[in-house]
Design goal:
The structure holds two protein chains of two kinds.
Chain A lengths: L12 E10 L2 E11 L4 E5 L6 H9 L6 E6 L2 E2 L10 E4 L11 H11 L5 H13 L15 H14 L4 E5 L7 H18 L2 E6 L2 H7 L2 E6 L2 E6 L1 H6 L4 H6 L4 E11 L2 E6 L3 E6 L9 E6 L4 E4 L6 E12 L2 E8 L4 E7 L11 E4 L6 E4 L3
Parallel strand pairs in A: 3-8, 3-9, 6-7, 7-8
Antiparallel strand pairs in A: 1-2, 1-4, 4-5, 9-10, 11-12, 11-14, 12-13, 14-20, 15-19, 16-17, 16-19, 17-18
Helix pairs in contact in A: 2-3, 2-4, 3-4
Chain B lengths: L17 H36 L12 H8 L1 H34 L2 H16 L2 H12 L4 H8 L13 H24 L4 H9 L4 H12 L1 H16 L2 H8 L6 H11 L3 H30 L5
The chains are: A alpha+beta, B mainly alpha.
Chain lengths: 364, 300
């Protein structure tokens, strides 16, 4: 089951300053991505951010207005999609409904002029790889969603592509199956050493499958980094808001010394935090802090602020507290579930011990 | 999948079917007025037609198989049947050759162009067949548009004879019946998942390969429906056949007209009518059988 394909060298994929124009607007706006051989990169963003368009340019279905796509340094822009040797799995799988599973998998090989036992052997091998060996004579409509996806994957892998593109591949699957398929695809990708690009709007999916994530917004890449770096050190306000849940509090830089900034929060507290580059004294800022990086307290202090506690919802082993600050900002605070706390024990809020809030400049 | 249950000996349905049976009865009652109307204005005349065909004389007084013997014993009858079916086949062939590429153009066009195209396609249906047929006389005549243009370009020196030829008839029927081919074809093709073409290209297939291995098989239901309509309509197109084909080209509808309204031999006209009905139905049911076989491939 593991010996799929010959172990080929994985290909590097470079997207250079790529722009795509749809009428008046830019769907993709000057995107540059350097993807390492064998890497899994997720293009993550809200719908309409240009991630699918970018994928379609790489596949050759859409022509760019500017920029280049290179595989191992060679541009592929002049090649029509049927000469690019790029495998793609569509969100709706796009299996040929009038062909059996085996015919679907053999399609790419036959299109390349291969015939006979060679094709049969490859079909058997790739169907075994996705554990569908027994289903080769079925029609796609006789398969479940997960099985159809495996067929689509086998069909894309059978042409031994240089790059594998996955367009929202898990969106149509139910929750449990989704995790199974994510593991399966990750396993296959590892075995084959295939450079893979995954388009998704689901951050958990991107976090679990990808080596690096390109967060896209309005046709631009906002941040291209590892999942952990994107979660812990978002570089823009958009990434900060899009990944995970976060609280945004308004404040001002009240002092700057040795790379540390004293932030006076509008909610009424003074915090000492690492200063972002290029920020001036008195500049208005957003402080972004994750719910789990806030803590409740019963005692006032210079680094705590008064809150008006609201609902507390148990989610798994945690309790999500809702609270309102003096300046009217709503906060979410996640704490481990303990004995019921009184109102007084929840009167103040402060940063948790290991909290790493991020400061972003704010227009006043 | 339908499961077959053997009928119980007393002919009663099993209790499990009770609920289903009740709703079926209700549906029947709703369809009853239509069924009665059909029976009185369609089925009854048809039965009368069959009855009339079994009389030997044109006064409809002596029952017998004389007219059938006359029709089936005459080689001319078979020639007319063959010519009529061949006319249908040629028209279907021409509408496919022109209509299929047109449907592909329609699919690739922008929504605005699509609106214009659909108007152009449907427009012939808004004009009476008589008007369209006479327009073709103007186009195909000795002094018509086609001949004038070809002569002035120096391609021909003598006017081509297009009227009262099968070629001219097929040309005009192709235009007249084209909407019947295009509408079902376009409706099936525009339901096809556009990703299928991209998937085929990404797998390395050329445009032609994609056309013949993916698009054509999946558009079969529309193609079959179009062929069915064009065939049934062109083999029975009495006005176009007689106005453009003239009296020299004899097809079954013209024969029926001559026998019933010129010679007043109604029994023989009835025989020819039944022959036309059977020949067209045979081809049409063969086509729709093909259509049902390929119908399962299209989803959504």
């Amino acid at each position: 089951m593991q010996d799929v394909g010959k172990s080929k060298a994985a290909r590097a994929l470079d997207v250079e300053d790529l722009s795509v124009r749809y009428g008046q607007s830019l769907a993709v706006d000057g995107v540059t991505l350097a993807i390492e051989p064998g890497e899994v990169v997720a293009l993550l963003g809200p719908s309409g951010c240009g991630k699918t368009t970018l994928l379609r340019v790489i596949a050759g279905f859409v022509r760019q207005a500017a920029g280049r796509v290179r595989v191992d340094g060679a541009t592929i822009d002049h090649l029509p999609s049927n000469q690019r040797n790029i495998g793609i799995v569509f969100q709706n799988y796009a299996l040929f409904p009038h062909m059996t599973v085996a015919e679907n998998v053999a399609y790419g090989l036959r299109a390349r002029g291969n015939r006979g036992p060679e094709v049969q052997a490859a079909v058997t091998r790739f169907l075994d790889t996705v554990q569908l060996g027994a289903f080769h004579q079925r029609l796609p409509r006789q398969l479940s969603g997960g099985q159809q996806q495996r067929v689509a994957l086998a069909r894309a892998l059978a042409i031994e592509p240089s790059i594998l593109l996955l367009d929202e591949p898990f969106a149509a699957l139910d929750r449990n199956l989704r995790l199974d398929m994510q593991i399966e695809i990750k396993r296959l990708q590892r075995t084959l050493g295939l450079t893979t690009i995954l388009v998704t709007h689901d951050q958990d999916e991107a976090m679990s499958v990808a080596d690096r994530i390109a967060v896209m917004n309005k046709g631009k890449v906002e941040q291209f980094d590892t999942p952990v770096a994107i979660y812990d050190r978002p570089q823009t306000l958009f990434v900060n808001g899009f990944i995970g849940t976060t609280n945004l509090m308004n404040g001002k830089i009240a002092g700057l010394q040795n790379g540390m900034a004293t932030v006076a929060l509008d909610a009424g507290a003074s915090l000492s935090l690492p200063a972002p580059a290029g920020i001036g004294l008195g500049a208005p800022v957003h402080m972004s802090v994750r719910p789990e990086q806030l803590a409740l307290s019963s005692v006032p202090g210079p680094d705590t602020w008064k809150i008006e506690p609201g609902l507390a919802l148990p989610i798994g082993a945690q309790l999500v507290h809702e609270a309102r600050t003096a300046d009217g900002t709503f906060l979410k605070i996640i704490e481990p579930r303990r004995a019921v706390m009184s109102e007084a024990a929840r009167a103040y809020c402060t940063l948790a011990a290991d909290a790493r809030p991020t400061l972003f400049p704010r227009s006043p | 999948m339908r499961t077959m249950t053997p009928p119980s000996p007393d002919g009663a349905t099993s209790p499990a079917d009770g609920g289903g049976k009740r709703s079926v009865t209700a549906e029947w009652q709703l369809a009853l007025p239509l069924a009665l109307a059909f029976a009185s204005i369609f089925l009854a005349p048809l039965l009368m037609l069959v009855g009339v065909s079994f009389f030997n004389d044109d006064k409809i007084s002596q029952p017998g198989f004389g007219q059938w013997a006359k029709f089936l014993g005459d080689p001319f009858s078979y020639k007319v049947i063959a010519d009529t079916m061949l006319l249908g086949v040629k028209t279907v062939g021409a509408t496919i050759l022109i209509g299929y590429p047109l449907a592909l153009v329609y699919l690739d066009a922008s929504p605005r162009v699509q609106k214009v195209l659909i108007f152009v396609i449907v427009m012939p249906l808004l004009l009476s067949v008589v008007v369209r047929t006479f327009a073709w006389i103007v186009v195909l005549g000795r002094e018509g548009v086609v001949n004038t243009v070809l002569m002035q370009l120096g391609i021909i020196s003598e006017p081509l004879r297009l009227l009262q030829t099968e070629l001219g008839l097929v040309i005009s029927l192709t235009q007249i019946e084209m909407p019947l081919m295009l509408l079902p074809l376009i409706s099936v093709m525009s339901r096809l998942d556009p990703n299928l073409r991209d998937a085929s290209a990404a797998l390395g297939a050329s445009r032609w390969r994609t056309l013949f291995t993916v698009i054509v098989p999946l558009s079969m239901p529309g193609l079959v429906a179009g062929c069915l309509l064009v065939f049934a309509s062109s083999t029975t197109a009495f006005i176009s056949q007689s106005v453009i084909g003239g009296v020299r080209l004899i097809y079954l509808p013209l024969l029926i007209w001559q026998q019933s309204l010129v010679v007043f031999n109604w029994p023989f006209a009835a025989v020819v009518s039944i022959a036309l009905l059977i020949s067209v139905l045979t081809v049409v049911s063969a086509l729709s059988w093909l259509g049902r076989r390929s119908g399962g491939y299209v989803h959504g």
